[in-house]
Amino acid sequence: MVLLCCIFSACTKIVTTDIGAGLLPGVDNIEPKDVYFDIKTKNAGDSSNHVAASQDMSLGYISDDPMFGKTSAAINVQLAPTSFPVSFGNSNKDSVWLDSTVLVLSYKGVWGDSFQNLAFRVYQISSDEPFAADSVYSSAHFFQKRPIELTENYQPVVINPRNLPDSVYPFHEAATNQLRIRLDREAVGSKFVYGFDTSSGYRDLTSFNQYFRGFQVVPEATGNSLLRINVQDTNTKVAIYYRYAPTSSPGTRDTAVLYFKATSGTTAASNYIKRDRTGSSVQKNNYYPSSNTEDSMIFLEAGPGIFANITMPDLSGLKNIIIQRAEIVMDQVPDNEFNSDLFLTPPQIYMTTYSTNTKRRFLTPATQTLPTDSSSISNLATLGTSPLPTVDPLTGRTRYSYRFDLTQYVQAIVTHGQEQYNFVLYAPGNEFIYAGEFSDVRLPISATPLNAPAQGRIVLGGGNNTAHKMRLHIVYTTVP
User: What are the two backbone dihedrals, phi and then psi, of residue 154, each rounded to the nearest 5 degrees?
Assistant: First the structure.
């Protein structure tokens, strides 16, 4: 039996344990042992992400996160009539009367403190801004030109997130889970009813999108939550309620509604997210950006946000052992400042190998499983992406922990001399990684996003944290 001396110099302890014993066959004189290795951790970068029009987007404002700071999330979307040419029931504009217009967004959930009100304004995206359905926009992309506000009375609309699941009964509709923002009657009337040349702008979709580029929904700097919104859901629309005099009955008035909706493949949409870490713990204590070679506190945010680098120890000296379990143990450092963890819950995370040669994040060798069609990684649950509620032994409080499985990867190093890599730890949506260090094949991490944009954050103990140390844990048996 051989364990090289270099292994013991990297260990924090080596003991006999029952962990993993259930994985072992009933063979005499085989006793599992475990060992902990030091790793190095650093808050390494701040990433943006790309959100497709079909995905859930974030909308709202986080004003009170003492650990990470403020977050603002806006949505840009094109909504258009569902069929062309468009008619208001009478070609004479003097025989059409606008009652009201409402921008309706499909509500899918909330992250944060839903007891605090949010407020929004709606703008028209300028016609000279490039906004196209065939583009996937970064979360850092923001349309700067907003010459026309469309919010009713040009005042922000205040909403309580807890009321959004309630039933509503507008004209010809019974619905739930809607964020409804009333638009200004005069501004919308001049755009879509009285001042609209129905012979051109309402002729076809291309003409309409050239005339009206889209809507920009922007949060006010108030509230402490992010809504999850889907702009391509059938619940999302602009509802124009109007009355008209039918040409067949000039002395009467009928009531009707015209819907603008999103259409898959022809609707442009983007999710702009801005982080402001001024005055937060991560900024005040120089955890990010940081000039340290290691960080004792690791700050992870659902993208766009901070990610971390993990430097693994040299495991090439491990010989003649069977790895029963190898895992990165990550524990939350409880937030003792304002107990904000009650609302600002942790994300799902992902850890992948990184090549300093190709500057690529790629599939960790011998660890992650792909289905036959290579569409996405299929064993995320067993890898350990989800936060697990545990009890902090120091405070007795509930915290979250992660155990990221590297068993096959470490065994491949021991048995086959697999090349070792360092890792990137982050909280993605459904970003792509490469199939290999030098492969040009890109694979989505997950068939559905692991996290909604910006929804999820956690502070983990780093590799040199004395109380909540991140470490590599290996359970093994020696080979006689």
Answer: 55, 35
Query: Does residue 139 sit within a domain?
Result: yes
Question: Within a domain: residue 54?
Answer: no
Rounded to an integer, what distance in angstroms lies between the CA atom of residue 431 and that of residue 272?
A: 17
CA distances from 14 to 1, 136, 157, 327 (A): 15, 50, 60, 15
Instruction: Give the integer Cα–Cα distance in Å for 463 and 161.
Output: 39
Confidence of residue 40 (pLDDT cuts 50, 70, 90): very high
Last-in-domain residue among 275, 293, 324:
275
Q: Is residue 381 part of a domain?
A: yes
For residues 89 and 148, membership in a common domain is answered with yes
- Measure the CA–CA gap between 130 and 209, rounded to whole angstroms: 11
Question: Of 250, 275, 300, which residue is a domain's last?
Answer: 275
Token pair 């808050």: residue: 43
Q: Give per-residue burial for 167-186: e unless 16+ CB within 10 Å, then b.
A: eeeeeeeeeebbbbbbbbee
Here the tokens at position 259 are 């819907």
Helices (H), 212-289: 281-284
Residue 451 neighbours by CB under 8 Å, 6+ apart = 302, 303, 347, 348, 427, 428, 429
Looking at the fold, whether 244 and 116 belong to one and the same domain comes out as: yes
**Per-residue pLDDT tens digits for 204-230:** 888 888 888 899 999 999 999 999 999
Burial class, 8, CB count within 10 angstroms (exposed 0-12 / middle 13-18 / buried 19+): exposed
CA 446 to CA 50: how far, in whole Å?
14
Range of the domain at 407: 5-49+277-478
- Nearest one of 336, 473, 325 to 392, comparing CA atoms: 336
pLDDT of residue 196 exceeding 80: no
From residue 9, alpha-carbon distances to 3, 42, 312, 407 in Å are 11, 22, 14, 21
Residues 6 or more apart whose Cβ sits within 8 Å of residue 27:
none
Report the number of distinct structural domains present in the chain. Answer: 2
Clarify whether residues 236 and 330 are in a common domain: no
